[in-house]
Amino acid sequence: MIAQNCYTCEQEGQFESLPPREKVGYDEYWRVAHAIDTALPGWLVLVPRRHIATIAELTDGEALTLGLWQVRLSRALHELTGCVKTYVIQFAEREGFSHVHFHLVPRMPDLPLHLHGPNVFDLMCPSEKDAVSTDEMNEIAIKLGHLLQAPLPDVPQWHTA
Fold this sequence. Notes:
This protein has 3 helices and 6 strands; from the N terminus they run αβββαββαβ. It is an alpha+beta fold. The protein starts with 6 loop residues before the first helix and ends with a strand.
């Protein structure tokens, strides 16, 4: 199901032609994209491939693979960026973004203390000069895709950018 006025659904509707930054990795249930409008390289979003507005609407298949995605993405972010941990956050409250999505945010060792925890959202909606460029997002997506290519036993097939 694709909902109108939903950025995530609009992107999913163009799945075959999405650039690497919108298709870091995917399976039958989930798609990973680099977050848009952020000053932090490697900020990812994990989105269900169908429109849902609450976690309670996840199917068992979606729920079973959610944790695998979160852990594998956290490991890949650690390897690529050197982050000390990965914040995993889910709100889905912003207008046009009510589609359930999980933010996977690399918490870098040098992140100022005032940006720790939920304050990391202060890095969203930066000035144009501070925003991660689409070229950089695509480069990160391709590198992460390579880190995610190892197949896992007994889970749906993973695909990468």
